[in-house]
Every structure is written in C-alpha cells, then in structure tokens.
Fold this protein.
Amino acid sequence: MPYDPSIAPSLPDDALVAAATRAGEALNRHRRPDGHWVFELEADATIPAEYVLLEHYLDRIDPPLQARIGVYLRSIQGAHGGWPLFHDGALNISASVKAYFALKTIGDDPDAPHMARAREAILAAGGAERTNVFTRIQLALFGQVPWRAVPVMPVEIMHLPLWFPFHLSKISYWSRTVIVPLLVLMALKPVARNPRGVSVQELFRTPPEQIRDWIRGPYRSAWGRFFKGIDVVLRRVEPAFPKAVRRRAIEAARAFVTERLNGEDGLGAIYPAMANAVMMFDVLGYPPDHPDAAIAWASVRRLLVIEEDRAYCQPCLSPVWDTGLAGLTMAEAGFIDGGGATSPCVADACTWLAERQINDVVGDWSVRRPGLAPGGWAFQYNNAHYPDVDDTAVVGMLLHRNGDPAHAQSIARARDWIVGMQSSDGGWGAFEPENTHLYLNHIPFADHGALLDPPTADVTARCVSFLAQIGMAKHDPVLVRAVEYLRREQEADGSWFGRWGTNYIYGTWSALCALNAAGLSHEEPCIRRAVDWLVSVQRDDGGWGEDEESYAAASHGRYKESAPSQTAWALLGLMAAGEADSPVVARGIAYLMATQREDGEWNELPYTAVGFPRVFYLRYHGYRLFFPLMALARYRNLRSGNTRQVVFGF
C-alpha cells in the first residue's frame, strides 16, 4: 500500500500495553541491585586504539586484553578500508591511523588483507600527515613525527591571568582537563617505551622530516590566520622561556591534576584526560605504585568493556544520565505495575541519585559564578568539580515526579544552581556559564572546533522543562529569557539543532517538550513550524532517522533507515505539541511496536548521540531501551486519560 500519512493504523490497547510491558520488563532487567542503571557507552575506534597504544607507551602490555581489542577494531573496519566515526560512516583519517597503529602494535601483519586495505585507504585520503592535532600528538609521543608537527602550547599557560585572551577558565571543562596534563607532556616531550619498536612510517605520503606545512588551513575565519601567526612566533621564542618559570608551570599543572584526580573515576571522568594524567605522572617520574599514579591507571582500566571474545574502551561512564532517563521512563510506564512515579524501582533510583548530588565541592564553574552554591549532578559516578547542567535538570525532574518530600531540599538546591548557571543570552551550556569565547575555536590546537561549551538549545530546553515542571511561573525572568533564547535558536525549517543528540530530531524534541512545559500554546507559530517539520521527515515505515552527517552537509532529520530512539524523540516532541491524536503519531507508534524484539528490546546500530559535532560521536546502549518505552507509555497514557496534554517537562 502506498504511504499515506493521513491513515492511522489500528493500535489495540491490549497490544500497546503488551509492548510497553515487555519493554518495561526488559529495561528493569538491566537495573543494578542498588537501584541504578548504567549502560555501555561506545564511541569509534579512537578510544580503544589509544588504550592499546597507552599500554605500549608504558610497556604494560596485557596480551589477552589486546587480542580482544584487536577483534573489536577489526570488526568495525569499514568497507572503504578505514575506520569511521560512527556506524556505517565515511572513512576518518585520524581514527584510521590510530586503529592501524594499534593493530600493528597488537601484532597484525602489515601485509594482511585488512591492514593493506587500511593502509591504501589512509594514503588515498592524504596520509598520516593530514591527521588531526590529537593524532599527531600521539604520533609525536611515539617518535613517528617531530614535535613541530603539533601546535605550540606552552605549559606556561598555567600562569596566564584571568583577563588574558586565552585562559583555562575560558575553555570547556573537557578541554581543560585534557589540556593541562598534556601541557606537561608537550613541554617534556617524552618518547613511548614502545617495547616492540612498532613504526607506522608507511602511512605517510611524505616522510615526516620533510613536511613543512603541519599547521595549515583551510582556516574557518581570519582568526585562524591570526593564530597561525601566533604559533609561528611562539615556536621561535619558546626555547628561550626561563627554566624556572617552566618548572613552576609544570608544578602548577601537576597540582591542578592532583586536586581533580577524582579517585577511580579519573580526571574529568573522561578517557583522554585520564590517559594524559597517567602519562604525565609517568614522565614526572612517579613510580607505578605511587598512589596518584596507581589510581590514575586504575581509572583508565575501569572504562574497559571486556567480553569473552572482544573488548573495547569506553570514553566515559554514564550512570547518572542513564539512571535519570530510565527512572523517568519507568515513572511514565507506571500502568505496567500500577506503581508509576512512586514504584519501588523509581524510588530506589531516586534514592541512589539523591546521594550523588554535589553539595560540598565548588567546581571550576565558580570562576564565572562566584558565590553560587553547588547543587548539581555529574554525568558519571563521581566528577565533583564538573557537574552537568543537563543531568541536573533530568534528575531534578525525576525527583520532583517521584514526589518524596525527602527530596525537596535536593530539588531546591538543583533549582538554585541551574538558575545561577544561566548565561546572559538566556541559554545554558552543559558545564560552564558564559563559555562563549568563540575566537578560541580557531587556535591551531582546536582543529576539532569543540574547545568551548556555549549555550545550546537542547540543554536550555531541559532546564526550561525542569524549572517549569517544579512550578516556576511562566513570567519569571529566568523562563522568559530562556524561552526567547529557544525562539531565536529555531532553524528556518522549524527544527532545532541538537548539540548532544543526533541532531535536529533530538533538538526539536527537546525544545517542544520545553515550550509545552513553559505553557506556550500549541498554536504558537514556532510550535506549528516544528510540528510541520517533524511530519515532513517521517519515513515511509512510520519511523524517523537522522544521519550523523547532518552535523556537516547532510539534510536535517533524514537517514536511510529509521532508528527506535530517534523515532521516540519525534513522537515525544509531537505529543508535547498536542499531536497525540495525529495519524502521524499512530504510525510512529506502530513502527516501534512492529520493530520490537520478543525480549522487549529494540535493535539500533546507528549512532544517535554526539560528543563533538563532526569529530566524535556516541552510541548510548540504553537509548534503544528507554526512549521507545517512554514513547509507548506516554501514548498509551494520553490515549486512555482525560486529556491529551503532556503535563511533565520531559
């Protein structure tokens, strides 16, 4: 039958309840004994490859583990011969060079068919000389390229005053924690132990010692050319920097890392910062059994996912995010067991989360907000210096929905912290307020273009949803400025950009939930434009999908296949906009029911999340479980209730 969006499929209530029940049981099976959820968080080949190289850098090689990581790396090699940044994506030269290097250190024969294909693909794409800054730093640490292949980043940066155009507080938390230990490495220029003497010179089209244009365009603006000139000057004068000043700067970097070491959860609780901390302690002469060096190494090892025949390294852990989203989903699906927001599983999740609120550490965000009391949640198990605004809003909504008076103070602290973290333009960034020094994205070191943490529509939407749900008046200046920010950020086609989820479907869902929670009429032009856009990108099978390439030049909201999580986002956005009775929504629900597995779960290979647009993408293994269940449960609740109005912020 030809696709006709005006025809609503038949969705018997018993079949809908059965599908949601299976999904709820599946999600509950993943719950940990103490009440929290944590799912695998998968990126591309880069992190597993870097972990392999880290073992060779330190000469702490674990052959059985490396063999398993080799299985994983070979399994995600693309048909083009290289490695992509996401499932079925185009070759990425930096990920491909690291993966090839890692496999060669593991012991793969360079003449093996998969290695030959990779080498040919890398050379055809420009060779290892055209990799990004972080890859060239890795190559420099292994002596594969000279240190002039990377931009100059003097460790004396640690001494710069707050007013200086470049200051650590002016970049994002993830950049800060990665850069500080890296400054020590770039100053001392250690060489990896590399006990097997592995080299990858065959990946260069031009011998590295002959290359003179390591730092080059195309520049994204005149700022790029300006900073290129600064790099040239610094390269000439850096050798003359006083040795005493350098020693003090290295000590300042060491003290920064040590203060934020964060136990077994690691510096910044993200792999690149943690790995750099391990290498920093090593080059500073710390023995492996020194408490700081030992815990830094343990934090890296904690990120490993080790299966019987394969293994990989995660970029970080996501328990607070997973638990908040799973808890909200189970609260929505309360008709399954009659418990709802106060069911034991939701109550246990709330108890677990409440214990992890950060109340006693004033983190780096305080540089821009001195005097603001802490009250947020981190993304990971522990990361007290770097709470996440997005997580805090989600957890706050769950605690509020649970309704336990014991959580009232936690909600109030979260409210005050989020209000205090609002930027002057009305929006919110993920970890920092006013992190908008956009010129810094043009320094040579920032060729990934993700040095900063400016406000974004999706994080702002979550904050609006939380504040509105807990009762902030729609005329409160905080909400007024935030709603105006969202209005300004809407794209011409009616969608919103999604910074932390893929992409315009994610951003549009987030914004529609927020505008509904803030009390805007569903007839508002901005809402109608968003609804029309979501309807326009629904696929013939009833689902929705979006390519990660929409962060580059691909069409907004379109992909060659539907994804359960993206379908759920579109449905939740449409229902928040008052479209619960639309045949478009019914077709989306039918897609979720038709693609559900017998065990209640869904398959989802496409990546639907992002670390850094165009550079680093993510697959949250929990997204395929809780978002489809949330959509099914909300649809059933609205259809069987007395109103079609979504009353919660999420």
Remarks:
- Residues 623-640 form the longest helix (18 residues).
- The mean pLDDT is 95.
- The CA atoms of residues 495 and 508 lie 5 Å apart.
- Strands lie at 41-42, 304-306, 311-313, 609-612, 616-620.
